[in-house]
Predict the structure.
Amino acid sequence: MSTSSSSAAEREPKREFLVKFFIVVVVSLICFLIFFFNQDENNKYIIETLELNGSAKAGDALFKMNCVGCHGITARGLVGPDLHSITQRLNDKEIIKQVTGGLTPPMPSFEIDPVNMSNLLKYLHNLE
Ligand code: HEC
């Protein structure tokens, strides 16, 4: 009798540890899933854009409306830098982040749908 009750008491802290361990694992898993799906949302836009084959002509029109004020009518640079051969320095993903991110003021962030973003990319590739 006394033996079994003492072994039950010994088992108690172990069980407590396992319960805590289980909670930590579940919480980490939830955090990971939230992080993962957030990343997925961001990447969806980029993947969708990269799957499209944009039109340089439409991109040119977009550039004239939104970008020439800072990058110049021929993209040779004004307030913003010259964008010729930009596609050799930055990959498409980086350019998408540059245009949509607003991370380098005074350049604003542009809310631009994937079709128009791919048009702009095509235009920038054609500048080379
Ligand atoms: C208000 C001015 C402004 C407008 C409008 C603007 N830009 Fe910019 N852009 C800048 C400035 C300034 C930089 C340099 C930022 C830095 O590197 O700190 C820049 C940088 C960039 C770069 C990265 C250049 C490099 O050498 O790393 C790209 C690509 C770019 N712009 C594309 C665009 C496109 C495409 C548009 C139109 C949709 C646009 N920009 C509109 C000001 C502007």
Remarks:
- The mean pLDDT is 91.
- The pocket of heme C is lined by residues 66-67, 69-71, 79-81, 83, 86, 90, 95, 98-99, 104, 106-108, 110, 120 (CB under 6 Å).
- The helical segments are 2-51, 56-66, 68-71, 86-89, 92-101, 114-126.
- The chain has two domains: 1-51, 54-128.
